[in-house]
Specification:
Length: about 260
Amino acid sequence: MTTALITGSTAGIGAAFARRLAADGHDLVLVARDTKRLQEQATELHDRHGIEAEVLTADLAEDDGISSVEKRLDDHRRPVDLLVNNAGFGNKGRFLEVSMADELRMLKVHCEAVLRLTAAATAPMRDRGRGGVVNVASIAAFVPRGTYGASKAWVVQFTQGAARDLAGTGVRLMALCPGFVRTEFHQRAGMGTENIPGWMWLDADKLVSSALADLARGRTLSVPDPRYKALMGAVKLAPRGLLGGISSRAGRKYGPK
Ligand SMILES: NC(=O)c1ccc[n+]([C@@H]2O[C@H](COP(=O)([O-])OP(=O)(O)OC[C@H]3O[C@@H](n4cnc5c(N)ncnc54)[C@H](OP(=O)(O)O)[C@@H]3O)[C@@H](O)[C@H]2O)c1
C-alpha cells in the first residue's frame, strides 16, 4: 500500500486526484483549509474504497500551514510516495487592480509552498530510491497572464529543473498544465467564464487519468488533451495569439462579481 498527499484535495482537480488514487488503492493525506469538508471527503473515500484517508488542515498561504505539511512529509514512519501540489486560486483583475497582499498570497501558495513541499517530499523519496511529485501548473504558464501565469511558469521551470537534478534517483517530478477545467476555481475568484468557448473545457477526471499516465511514462511536462497540445503548437508560433488573447480576457476584467 502506498500513500499520496494531495493539497487542495476537497474540490476540482485535487478532488479528482483523490477519487482516482483512492480507487487505485492508495492511502491518502488530504490537505486543505476547510476541516469539515476534508473529514467528509476522508469518510466517503474510506467507505467507498477501503483506504485510509488522513485529514491535515493547513492554509498554504501561511508559514504555519506550510510547516505542518512539511513535517508530515518528513515523517519517516509514515512515508509519502506521491505528492500532488495542487492547491491554488485565481485573483480577479489585471495588474494594479489586484491588491499587493493578494498578489503575495498567490506567490506563497503557488511558489513558496510548492518549493518547500517538493523539497520536504523528495529528500526522503531520494533516500528510499522511489517516489513521485506532480506539481499542478497551468497552460497559463505559456501565455502572458499577470502574476497567475508568471507563478505557473515558475512551477513548470522549477519542476523540470528539479526533475533533471534528481534524474537517476528513482524520484519522478512532473508539471501538469491543464487548460480550462470545470471546478470551483472561476466561481471562487469571481471570474466570468462566458468568453470561454465550450470546446475548451476539460473534465477533471479525464485530466487526472492523462496526468497519471504521463507520470508513469516518465514525462516531466504533461499537457493533457489533444486540443491543448494543438494550441500549444499555435502558441509557440504566435505567443500573443489565440490562446493568449482568450486567456488574458477570460474573467480578468475588474468589476462586480
Ligand atoms: N480550473 C481550471 O481551469 C484550472 C486550469 C489550470 C490550472 N488550474 C490549477 O489547478 C489547481 C486546482 O484548481 P481547481 O480548479 O481544482 O480549483 P478549486 O476547485 O477552486 O479547488 C481549489 C482547492 O485548493 C484548496 N485551497 C485553496 N487555497 C488554499 C490554501 N491557501 N491552502 C490550502 N488549500 C487551499 C481549496 O480548499 P480550501 O478552500 O478548503 O482550502 C480546494 O480544495 C490550482 O493550482 C489551479 O491554479 C486550474
